[in-house]
Design a protein that fits this description.
The protein is mostly helical. It has helices spanning about 10-15, 25-55, 60-100, 115-120, 125-140. It is elongated, with a radius of gyration of 20 Å. Residues about 1-5 have low confidence and may be disordered.
Length: about 140
């Protein structure tokens, strides 16, 4: 008997939940739905940006043409950025399925509800992510 119903938790309820409820079935359901919604809205933004890029550009005025080309370049950057998000969403959904969602891939520590609400695809707790960014900047700088 499958009694899967939409998650009825709110962000406020999740934030105020005791630590003992961290990543319980209801919270995982909440984040699963949040990720599915994010996937859907990301696909819509990608399609909108693609549609904007393929709209006909028949301008006799060079400044209008330049403006339209700049808008197309911006749309292309949006598509590229959003397309990088889709695999991260899929990986997060897979971590939910495996029961690993919400925990840092490196330290195993909880990522934390506030961080997951802000970035549902987060893979690392704030401390590990900060160290990774410092190392990246050090080696790339």
């Amino acid at each position: 008997m499958n009694t899967s119903k939409p998650c009825s938790l709110t962000e406020e309820e999740i934030i105020n939940a005791p630590e003992s409820e961290y990543m319980n079935k209801e919270q995982l359901g909440f984040f699963r739905q949040k990720l599915l919604d994010l996937h859907k809205s990301t696909c819509v933004r990608i399609q909108e940006a693609k549609d904007q890029m393929v709209s006909p550009m028949d301008f006799s005025d060079p400044s209008d043409r330049a403006s339209c080309e700049e808008q197309s370049n911006i749309a292309l950057r949006i598509v590229e950025r959003e397309q990088k998000l889709l695999p991260k969403i899929q990986q997060s959904l897979e971590r939910i399925r495996l029961g690993e969602y919400g925990y840092c891939l490196e330290s195993g520590e909880p990522i934390g509800i506030p961080r997951l609400l802000a970035r549902p695809t987060a893979e690392y707790c704030a401390e590990v992510k900060t160290l990774k960014e410092i190392k990246e900047n050090h080696y790339n700088g």
